[in-house]
Amino acid sequence: xxxxxxxxxxxxxxxxxxxxxxxxxxxxxxxxxxxxxxxxxxxxxxxxxxxxxxxxxxxxxxxxxxxxxxxxxxxxxxxxxxxxxxxxxxxxxxxxxxxxxxxxxxxxxxxxxxxxxxxxxxxxxxxxxxxxxxxxxxxxxxxxxxxxxxxxxxxxxxxxxxxxxxxxxxxxxxxxxxxxxxxxxxxxxxxxxxxxxxxxxxxxxxxxxxxxxxxxxxxxxxxxxxxxxxxxxxxxxxxxxxxxxxxxxxxxxxxxxxxxxxxxxxxxxxxxxxxxxxxxxxxxxxxxxxxxxxxxxxxxxxxxxxxxxxxxxxxxxxxxxxxxxxxxxxxxxxxxxxxxxxxxxxxxxxxxxxxxxxxxxxxxxxxxxxxxxxxxxxxxxxxx
Length: 384
Known about the structure:
The radius of gyration is 21 Å and the shape is globular. It is of the alpha/beta class. It folds into two domains: 7-164 and 366-382, Glycogen Phosphorylase B (Rossmann fold, 3-Layer(aba) Sandwich), CATH 3.40.50.2000; 178-364, Glycogen Phosphorylase B (Rossmann fold, 3-Layer(aba) Sandwich). It has helices at residues 16-33, 44-48, 65-70, 72-89, 100-112, 132-139, 150-156, 167-171, 178-184, 202-222, 235-248, 261-267, 277-285, 297-306, 314-319, 334-349, 352-364, 368-382; strands at residues 7-13, 36-41, 52-53, 93-97, 117-120, 142-145, 161-163, 192-197, 226-232, 254-258, 270-274, 289-293, 326-328. The protein is 52% helix and 16% strand. The longest helix is centred in the middle third of the chain and has 21 residues, at 202-222. The protein contains 18 helices and 13 strands. It comes from Pseudidiomarina insulisalsae. Its EC number is 2.4.1.182. Belongs to the LpxB family.
């Protein structure tokens, strides 16, 4: 059997969720093609799959307009280095994973040099700043969509796109036993447990951590049989959150868990979390949740004027219905968070909420890694 010629694939992830997607895609690309060289930016998961990251991924993990402005010199310096390295190496295809404001700029420069480009995870162009579609078309040859309603938007604008499903829907089992998760984490079965997930970035924990701790204290006042767990992505974030807890809620029965965020969610009765991919994980694990977020003041003033979608959490966007409570800015108070959490726990007892989560889970199962790799290889091979 003839050996397929080696491919060079550029791949760039700007945060931890992209690192997870990139690692799965890289595994499938190698499985389907054989010898593949990867060049770009990624985190520990992509590095384990053979990527030598051109710059530290954490330097790119900046969220919010005001935060980007403060980090702009570093971001611009990294972008120049990445573009120059990719132009010199000329990959058969460049795949930007999420982080559209950063990745699409790089993709546009590479496409202008005749390099095939893809974007994995559609920007939320259907929700806000819809004029961005012109820039997306100028930057990429194909979009890989994780959500079923996104492909129709690109079809309307004549940009090739494929609904690949979501890798998390493939990876997370349809049923995750709560007691098994508690056993794995060595948690007792008797207590009601609420998981607090205030974010993975230091800025998010600084903004959301105090209010989550206050909400937990209020929930404990109403339900004294409760205990709290909080998975932390790193030792630094765990130390940051523990210091906040010692200052603001020293008597709160809170156990920090090293990583294992999905297992922690599966072990919980209810979740208090920030917006983002974690809401999709929570839905797939099928635990009742309350979604809350506070932006930097300037970021929020700009975003609220441009955001057009009815919802901002992924479960509600997928269902096109208010399945889970969403609280933002001034709505995010201890009382309102505790109220919403009580309502979600009650809704879960009636079963309909979890049944709806199951339906949405099935709709997202498409073997996303394999489908994405196949589309990427087709694009790479048509340009060789």
